[in-house]
C-alpha cells in the first residue's frame, strides 16, 4: 500500500494555488494521471521521487515512511523509484549502454540490460552518444534506464509522448507486460486517453492541484466487458484496431470504457475521437448514428 498525502503552494501563471493530494494506492496499481497543463502533475511526481520538497505531508510505502509529517525525508537515491521526467536528461558523456550501466546497482540489474536494449529497439544505438539521438530515441533510453533497477515504484511523466505511433504502441504493450509481470506500482502522466485506458487500472484527473475525478477501470485490460443484456449507449471512440475481419472499438461512454467488435465492413467510416451511439447485445451490434 502506498499512501501519498502532500501539500505544496505552487506558483501558477494566474497566481498561487495549493496542491493538496491525498491518495491511497494498492501495491501493484497502475495509476494514470491526466489534467490540464499546469495542474501540478509533474510536481506531484517530483515530490514522490524526493526531487521537490512539499510544504507539508506524508509518504508511506508498504509501511516504510519516505516522508514524515515532521519533514524528515528519505533521500531520493534511497527511494526505490524509477522515474522518467520530461526534462530528465541522459548523461551526455556516456553512451546509451553507459547510461544504462550507470543506473545498474547489482549484477542482476546488468544482466537485464541486453533485454531492455532489445525491447526498446536500441541495440544498434547502444554505442552512440545521447547527443546524436533523436528526441524519441533519447526518451526510449531514458525509459530503459528507469527500468534497469526493477524499481518498486515507477513514475512516468508522459514517457511516450515524443514517439511515433507504431513504436509508441509497442512500448505501451511493453509497459503493460512489465506491469503484469512485476506488479510494479506505476504512476503515469499522460494526455492520451487511449493510452490511459489501455494501461491504467485507475485514472485520476488533477485540476489546479486537486483530484477532481478518481475512476477505477477494469483490472488488467482497462475495459469493462460488454454486458449480457442489450445495451444502448453513446460514447467517444478511443481506439479502432483491425483484427482479421473484425474491428475492435474501445468506446468511452463517460461512465465506463466498453470494448465492442464489429465486422470491418461496418466500421469503415469510423474514426478515433468520433462520438457514436450504438446498440449492442451479446451477439449483435448496431451503430445507430454514424456521423
Ligand atoms: N518549485 C516550485 N515551486 C512553486 N511552483 C512551482 C514549482 N515548480 C513548478 N511550479 C509551478 O507549478 C505549476 C504546476 O506545474 P507542473 O509542471 O507540476 O504542472 P503539470 O500539470 O505537470 O503541467 P504540464 O502538463 O504542462 O507538464 C506551474 O504553474 C509551475 O510554474
Automatic annotation (TrEMBL):
Kindly give the Pfam families that the UniProt entry links to this protein: ABC_tran
What residue stretches are annotated with the ABC transporter domain?
1-233
Q: From which residue to which does the signal peptide run?
A: none
Q: Which SUPFAM superfamilies match?
A: P-loop containing nucleoside triphosphate hydrolases (SSF52540)
Q: Would you say which domain of life the source belongs to?
A: Bacteria
The record, for InterPro entries, names: AAA+_ATPase (IPR003593), ABC_SmlMolc_Importer (IPR050093), ABC_transporter-like_ATP-bd (IPR003439), ABC_transporter-like_CS (IPR017871), ABC_transpr_FbpC (IPR015853), P-loop_NTPase (IPR027417)
Q: Which GO terms describe its molecular function?
A: ABC-type ferric iron transporter activity; ATP binding; ATP hydrolysis activity
Keywords from the named record: ATP-binding, Cell membrane, Ion transport, Iron, Iron transport, Membrane, Nucleotide-binding, Transport
CDD domains assigned: ABC_Carb_Solutes_like
List GO terms (cellular component aspect): membrane
Q: Which PANTHER family match?
A: SPERMIDINE/PUTRESCINE IMPORT ATP-BINDING PROTEIN POTA, SPERMIDINE_PUTRESCINE IMPORT ATP-BINDING PROTEIN POTA
> What is the protein name stated in its UniProt record?
Molybdate transport system ATP-binding protein
Amino acid at each position: 500500500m502506498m499512501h501519498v498525502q502532500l501539500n505544496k503552494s505552487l506558483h501558477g501563471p494566474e497566481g498561487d494555488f495549493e496542491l493538496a493530494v491525498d491518495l491511497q494506492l494498492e501495491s501493484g496499481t497502475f495509476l494514470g494521471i491526466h489534467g490540464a497543463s499546469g495542474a501540478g502533475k509533474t510536481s506531484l511526481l517530483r515530490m514522490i521521487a524526493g526531487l521537490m520538497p512539499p510544504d507539508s505531508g506524508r509518504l508511506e510505502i508498504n509501511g516504510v515512511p519516505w516522508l514524515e509529517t515532521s519533514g524528515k525525508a528519505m533521500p531520493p537515491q534511497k527511494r526505490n523509484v524509477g522515474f522518467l521526467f520530461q526534462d530528465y536528461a541522459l548523461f551526455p558523456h556516456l553512451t546509451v549502454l553507459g547510461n544504462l550501466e550507470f543506473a545498474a546497482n547489482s549484477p542482476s540489474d546488468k544482466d537485464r540490460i541486453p533485454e531492455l536494449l532489445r525491447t526498446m529497439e536500441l541495440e544498434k544505438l547502444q554505442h552512440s552518444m545521447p547527443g546524436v539521438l533523436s528526441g524519441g530515441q533519447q526518451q526510449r533510453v531514458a525509459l530503459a534506464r528507469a527500468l534497469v533497477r526493477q524499481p518498486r515504484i515507477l513514475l512516468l511523466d508522459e514517457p511516450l509522448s515524443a514517439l511515433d505511433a507504431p513504436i509508441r504502441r509497442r512500448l505501451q504493450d511493453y509497459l503493460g507486460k512489465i506491469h503484469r509481470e512485476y506488479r510494479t506500482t506505476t504512476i503515469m502522466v499522460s494526455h492520451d486517453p487511449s493510452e490511459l485506458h489501455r494501461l491504467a487500472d485507475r485514472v485520476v484527473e488533477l485540476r489546479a492541484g486537486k483530484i477532481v475525478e478518481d475512476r477505477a477501470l477494469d483490472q488488467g485490460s482497462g475495459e469493462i466487458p460488454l454486458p449480457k443484456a442489450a445495451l444502448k449507449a453513446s460514447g467517444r471512440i478511443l481506439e479502432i484496431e483491425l483484427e482479421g475481419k473484425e474491428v475492435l472499438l474501445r468506446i468511452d461512454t463517460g461512465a465506463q470504457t466498453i470494448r465492442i467488435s464489429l465486422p470491418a465492413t461496418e466500421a469503415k467510416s469510423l474514426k478515433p475521437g468520433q462520438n457514436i451511439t450504438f446498440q449492442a447485445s451479446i451477439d449483435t451490434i448496431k451503430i445507430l448514428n454514424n456521423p
